[in-house]
Design goal:
single chain, mainly alpha, 3 domains, about 55% helix
């Protein structure tokens, strides 16, 4: 039996048979505090879900923690664990950043990232007529260039 069913049984015993609360609770096998407990009403969860979805679309890089902070600033008092549960239930996730376009333009087309950076650095060092050490190994030996 669920606690709600046991509460109903205690209430029925008290009304029909004029049992005391103690006696009815002992007979049903439920604690007196459980019988007296009145749960809190759940607030409108649909409105909270909607607002969470709106905030997530406005700020796709925010996770549930930062969205919880925004909700608190708006005056919506809600537990952070509840926000996390709703965030997962709505299939929301932090959107990953796409690669920065200037990183793709800085190197020659088709060249590996390290090669383009090495050529630029090597040309600069040769312009200064200094000895440089390359950051690559060829057959176990460090390459030195002039």
């Amino acid at each position: 039996m669920t606690p709600a069913q046991r509460r109903a049984a205690v209430e029925w015993l008290r009304e029909c048979y004029a049992f005391s609360e103690r006696r009815a609770c002992r007979l049903v096998g439920i604690g007196r505090t459980t019988v007296r407990y009145r749960g809190t009403l759940v607030t409108d969860e649909a409105a909270l879900r909607e607002r969470l979805r709106e905030l997530a679309t406005e700020r796709p890089r925010f996770g549930y923690r930062r969205l919880h902070a925004l909700l608190r600033r708006e005056g919506i008092v809600v537990n952070h664990k509840r926000v996390a549960r709703l965030y997962r239930a709505e299939d929301l996730a932090v959107r990953r950043r796409s690669p920065c376009p200037r990183d793709l333009l800085a190197r020659p087309a088709g060249a590996p990232i390290a090669q383009g950076a090495m050529e630029n650095g090597e040309a600069e060092m040769r312009a200064r007529n200094r000895r440089i050490r390359a950051h690559g190994h060829v057959r176990g030996a460090v390459i030195l260039a002039r």
